[in-house]
Amino acid sequence: MQPIDFSGAKRDGKGFQFPGEFEITAVGHASANLPTHVPQLLERAGLHVLHESVRHRHSGGGNFVSVTVSFRCDSREQYEAAHRALRESPDIRYTM
């Protein structure tokens, strides 16, 4: 079986295409009202949030919640700013 070569993805322009719609997931404490807080943080970072896309799911124990949101951005810098804005919040443990 041949190993998969992912190195060509960057050379031929495949992968992230800007401008575009992207999805981000933030995970944090269930008590932090993240379904409301995450879209607000993204908007403060200058991103166009697709509010109809917001969905959330509680962990099995109910202590944590994951919130997934779609947003539009024009550049890789804006995409990275979205992750940065969420990770700077003390209520958010990590982003994907």
Note poorly predicted spans.
1-12
Structural class of the helix and strand makeup? alpha+beta
In angstroms, what separates the terminal alpha carbons? 30 Å
Question: Could you tell me the strand content as a percent range?
Answer: 35-45%
The biggest beta sheet reads:
4 strands, antiparallel
CATH superfamily: ACT domain
CATH class descriptor name? Alpha Beta
Show the helix and strand layout.
Layout lengths: L7 H4 L8 E10 L4 H11 L3 E11 L5 E10 L2 H12 L4 E4 L1
Structural notes for this entry:
With about 100 residues, the protein is of the alpha+beta class. It has a single domain (about 15-95), classed as ACT domain (Alpha-Beta Plaits). Helix content is about 30%, strand content about 35%. The protein has three helices and four strands. Strands 2-3-1-4 form a four-stranded antiparallel β-sheet, covered by helices on one side. Strand 2 and strand 3 form a beta hairpin. The longest helix has 12 residues, at about 75-85. The protein starts with 7 loop residues before the first helix and ends with a strand. About 20% of the residues are buried.
